Known about the structure:
Blueprint: H1 17-30, H2 34-47, H3 49-56
Helix pairs in contact: 2-3
Amino acid sequence: MKVGKKDDILTTVRLTEQLFEDFKQEALRDKITMRNLLERAMYLYLLDPTFKAVIKNQLHAYYTGSIK
């Protein structure tokens, strides 16, 4: 499926500053953008039950502030 700019959705995500700083450093080393990571993760989440289970069972979600 090829998606053009007309089909793109602009969204915002609130992240902890430390999480974003850690990601930026790793992303520069690995040469990956947040968009690339998010698109790949969403694709795997939708199509790979094992990946989905790993994400759902992540114990360190408090790092992102999504679990209190």
